[in-house]
Amino acid sequence: MKKNILFFLLAALSCLPGKLFSQTYQLAGNPVNTTGWDLVSDAAVSGDFIRLTTDQTSRYGAIKLSTPITLSYCDKWKVEFDFRIDGNGTTQFGRGDGFTFWYLANPPTGFVSGGGLGIPSNASGLMVGFDIFNNTTEGQMSKVHLLYGTNNTAGNNIEYNNTPGSSFHSPDLYSTQPFVGDTYKHVEVNGETDLSNPTNWIIKIRIDGVLIVDQSFAPSGNAVGMTQGYFGFSAATGGASARHSIKNAKVFVDKVPILNNTITPFVCTNPTTGNGTVDLTSYNSQFVNNPGNYLFTYYILGVATPIANPSSFQYSGNTTIKVVIKDPTSTLCDNGDGIIQLNPTPFAASDASLIGCNNNNAGTATFDLNTAAVTTLAGTTKEFYPTLYDLNAGTNQITNPNAYASGPATIYVRVTTSQGCVSTSKITLNIHPVVTVNDRELRSCFIESNPSTASFDLTSAAVTPTPVGITKKYYPSLTDAVNNTNEITNAANYIAPNGVVYVKVFNSNGCYAIAKVKLTVLAPVLSKVLQNQTICMTGKTTLDAGPGFSSYLWSTGATTQIIKNIGVGTYWVKLKTGECVTTQTVNIYPSEHPVVSNIDISGGTVTVYVNGGTSPYQYSMDNVHWQDSNVFSNVVRGEAKVFVKDSYNCEPIEINITVPNLINVITPNDDGINDIIDYSALAVKQNLEVNIYDRYGVQIFRADKANGYRWNGTANGRRVPTGNYWYSVAWNENNKKITPVKFSGWIVVKNRE
Fold first, then answer.
1. I need a surface site. Which of 67, 84, 192, 358 has the fewest CB within 10 A?
2. Which has the closest alpha carbon to 387: 423, 427, 358, 347?
3. Is the link from the previous residue into 86 a cis peptide, with omega within 30 of 0?
4. How many C-beta neighbours within 10 Å does residue 330 have?
5. Spatial separation of the C-alpha atoms in residues 691 and 697, rounded to whole Å
6. Cα(575)–Cα(523) distance, integer angstroms
7. pLDDT of residue 17
8. Where does the chain cross the membrane (predicted)?
């Protein structure tokens, strides 16, 4: 048989790079899936196996593929299956007869007598028989027969076919490999091209891993040159009886997957010579993915010798090229076939047109001249010229056809095919209408947390009069817009200060123009009349935000321009100007109370010293009559009050004071009259101090709690000389704030000694 057999894709190899899943022909499953197979006569599905015959005499069964398989250029193949032969047999002939795996050009379609193991007479192809009945001795045996040829011997029994180089008969394996039994036996049949004689197959058969045959077989009879047939199994019982069963049948193939079986490229011939040249290898990618993974051989149909130089194949008329594709990494049948049909026809380039964008009104469009549909042929070369004269003269060829800037014009092109055929045509360049845009301004209210910025909805800028069918993109600068860099992605909420952005407007043709949008931040508008105030703590005032605003909303809930009877605190008002609202805060501070820092009393004169608050101050000792002077004269001795208020005329502060009795003369002669100065009545005052000084300012006596705040005109236990002395009495009045009081005067001491 010519090295031609089609197999099922080996699943383990189907995942290799560059391969696709192929058909898988097999008999497996429970129940067995027989889709794509035909059951003949007695054959039937029985659970997970195919029963070819029942255990009866004169029974026949077969299973074959429904469609023939075309075999071509197969280097290696493999078949696996399990078989079982069991049953009761007959008294005269025992169990019989056996079964065959085959690839036949004329498979059985009905009953076949048992002697040929179910193989029709004169069947041609590859037959591997598993024989359990010796037709000579009519006894049991276990033999393997192989025929690579035509079943045309007596009785159509391959047991008797001994065609030299095409047949094989094993020894009787009855004692070591009995075919009859309750268990399945596993068979592997491997075939590969005999490299020393490529028309032969080297066939290897193993039963349960034991090698039965390993030799080269030559096709004979009608198997020579056979290219199409059917895979299948058959069995017959003849005069004996047995049940013949098979399961887990697989025929493996790793055939190169072909994308296109036939391609018909455009080719032409040189009018002068009548010949053309084509690179057949340039079409490899149309047959398979990743052509670098495969080996390609090219034949002229009907010629057995490969084309020697396929990359420069010369032809003249219609020529059919057969392409054989081989995967060098494959271990099984791996050849794919393709056809390249060369039908030379005259070549003519077509006139074409291109239309481009006059982007941003630049005056020209940029054209890729190579995209002009002047030809659908692959592998052509094109030369472009600005005028027909330049094309004919070969001058001023356009050197940048992929990015040719031009206004409306006509360009001329010379197209040369890979076979050297030449044609010229023209390309008309047109320009789309200019995209119309207008510069615009967007004004937006300031953001309170950052008043120099605002949130702009850039999408609301009406930069184009025809918004239907346009697309807009936004950029922070003109350079960014031209180069498509730094696109603004938050165009509906773009935070920015005063400035500009650029809008790139595309129409449905992909053309664009750029518009400028000025961004203006509407600054806060504050009331010029609303000012902070200072009032008395318990006082009330009026707040006026001033006119000119469209609405007012105070923190008090009022919506008027003016609010009245407002006490100390912090307030805000929302002032609306146009669509913007400015929040302005105003404070009403409590006035600072004045503080009496100290009081001097000299005789009947009281001097009040004040700080804090806001001058000028006013003073009173009865909270009725007020004076601007801080000095009170002729104050009566005893307890008194001093009132002070500042310019805010708030509730005055009140200070309690004591004006001591004024003693100017003492006569310390122990007569009980004016013998001492006695300020013990002030002992209840805080920090009371009484000091006596001589006329030089030297302290000569200090009255304290120990001496009862009394002085009897002595110093260091001795009477002081008669003369004038000064005294100073200081204490703190216990008011809301401790007020220092100082009382001073002079005294005459008259001693008789």
1. 67
2. 427
3. no
4. 20
5. 11
6. 13
7. 35
8. none
Assign 3-class secondary structure to 79-140.
EEEEEEEECCCECCCECCCEEEEEEECCCCCCCCCHHHCCCCCCCEEEEEEEEEEECCCCEE
Residue 23 has pLDDT above 90, yes or no: no
Q: What are phi and psi of 154, to 5 degrees?
A: -60, 130
Residue 4 scores a pLDDT above 50? no
Is residue 441 within 8 A of residue 522, CB to CB? The reply is: no
Could you please report the per-residue DSSP string of 656-700?
A: EEEEPPP--EE--SSSSSS--EE-GGGTTSEEEEEEEE-TTS-EE
- Contact status, residue 493 vs residue 455, Cβ threshold 8 Å: yes
CA 187 to chain centre: 54
Question: Taking the CB of residue 250, how many other CB atoms lie within 10 A of it?
Answer: 17
Go through the chain and tell me how many residues it has. Answer: 753
First to last CA, the chain: 172
pLDDT at residue 568 tops 80: yes
Q: What is the mean pLDDT of the chain?
A: 88
* Close Cβ partners of 175 (under 8 Å, ≥ 6 residues apart): none
pTM here?
Answer: 0.46
Identify the helix (H) or strand (E) that includes residue 482: helix 478-483
pLDDT digits (tens, 9 = 90+) for 632-690: 998 888 888 899 998 988 889 888 888 887 677 888 887 878 878 878 878 888 888 88
* Chain position carrying tokens 């029994």: 157
Please provide the DSSP assignment of 267-326 as one string: ----TTTS-EEE-GGGGHHHHSSSGGGSEEEEEETT--SPPS-GGGEEE-S-EEEEEEEE
**CB neighbour list of residue 234: distance below 8 Å, 6 or more residues apart:** 40, 52, 60, 61, 62, 63, 99, 100, 102, 107, 108, 112, 117, 118, 119
Q: Band of the pLDDT at 149, cuts 50, 70, 90?
A: very high
- pLDDT tens digit sequence for 226-263: 878 898 999 998 888 899 999 999 887 666 778 998 99
Q: What is the pLDDT of residue 452?
A: 95
Strands 739-749 and 665-666: parallel
Contacting residues for 547 by C-beta, under 8 A, at least 6 apart: 561
Query: Which residues are registered as beta bridge partners of 446?
Result: 454
- On whether the CB atoms of residues 102 and 212 are closer than 8 A, the answer is no
Query: What residues does 46 pair with on adjacent strands?
Result: 49
SS3 at position 162: coil
**Confidence band of 20 (pLDDT split at 50, 70, 90):** very low
Give residue 62's pLDDT: 95
Cβ contact 4:73 at 8 Å: yes
Q: Which amino acid is at 262?
A: T
**pLDDT score for 330:** 67
Strand partners, 103: 126, 231
At 193 the pLDDT is 81
pLDDT at residue number 8: 31
Q: How far is it, in rounded angstroms, from Cα 509 to Cα 703?
A: 111
